């Protein structure tokens, strides 16, 4: 092939290539200019706030808009969230064994993924709900998706309106839980806590214990909270731990709920057998507990017997030494109030029961005659003394749990 023919073929190849690259670059440049102009116009004429699901304000704003009806009343594109009933272990509707009432799952209707809009104080607000791509989080690199809400409206001067909406949502969330006991659990694959439930406070007088145990514990916690300076001056770690022990059904968990309600404290429930929890994460979790909370670790004997894990499964990651270090090691949180419970205190290692980890050992035992009498009078306050004496006289002392008695009274409440 001659040189002129080679040049012609090269020319025929290069010219279309250059033309294609030029047109592609021109189109890309046009899109870039358009996006630039849109961003500039948006910054100049649009106010917006973006919330991520990793921030608690996300849930507060979401719930506020749903419960106030700002979005669900005007939308026809909804998603559904079904929650288990409190006592049912699954999704199936279950009849309560004591009251006979059926408990159905709670169903919430929420905005689906995508664009929505609603009107607030006469201003149209665009509500964009988006789910991001999966990301790997935590030491185990577990996949998780971050959801976002972007609220926008015309006019940068309306940013104050969007900020006010967030503040109203926050106030709404706090007022909603006012007078209730907040329950926290560790966020899965993360080292922070999230509120999973708000419970109506259990009346302190409803917990019927032998002698004045309940009142003594409440006074002990009050003294602890008021004497931080005393601890620091004497070089004593500013922490308080309580070990509740006794047979199942004697009211250990109920007692903690009542104490929290009486002192206006929240509860952080800590599951040491969680597969995402190791020694390091346990330390971080205890350091990052919310203020004014009780940390509750239930059934310690079901996790460790002596110094050995009950389950030798490879999934178990919290060691006994890791637990001890988290409770009173160098990195332990100051000002912490810890409650642990066990059905078999004799199975626990003495290191877990010593002061600094379990400052007070509190036994909750089978019901005495005095407890039986007081519970009877709580359910049937108008009963004559003779009837109470007959009932109490027929029951054995120190043989029945308070849970068994309560179940009996509930069954025959009418």
What is the highest CATH level, the class of the largest domain? Alpha Beta
Distance from N terminus to C terminus (CA atoms, Å) equals 109 Å
**What value does the Rg take, in angstroms?**
30 Å
Major β-sheet strand ordering = 12-11-14-15-18-13-19
CATH superfamily of the largest domain: P-loop containing nucleotide triphosphate hydrolases
Describe the fold and architecture.
The chain has a seven-stranded mixed β-sheet with strand order 12-11-14-15-18-13-19, covered by helices on one side. The protein has a four-stranded antiparallel β-sheet with strand order 1-10-7-6. 38% of the residues lie in helices and 23% in strands. It folds into three domains: 46-77 and 112-176, 2-Layer Sandwich (Ribosomal Protein S8, Chain: A, domain 1), CATH 3.30.1370; 199-363, Rossmann fold; 369-411, no CATH class. It has 414 residues and is of the alpha/beta class.
Please specify the SSE layout and strand pairing.
Elements (H helix, E strand, L loop, with lengths): L2 H43 E7 L3 H12 L10 E6 L10 E2 L6 E2 L2 E6 L2 E7 L2 E9 L3 E3 L4 E3 L2 E8 L4 H18 L4 E6 L6 E7 L13 H14 L1 H6 L5 E7 L6 H11 L3 E4 L9 H9 L5 E5 L6 E2 L2 E2 L10 H9 L7 E7 L7 H4 L6 E4 L5 H11 L5 H9 L8 H10 L3
Parallel strand pairs: 11-14, 13-18, 13-19, 14-15, 15-18
Antiparallel strand pairs: 1-10, 2-5, 3-4, 6-7, 7-10, 8-9, 11-12, 16-17
Helix pairs in contact: 2-3, 7-8, 10-11, 10-12
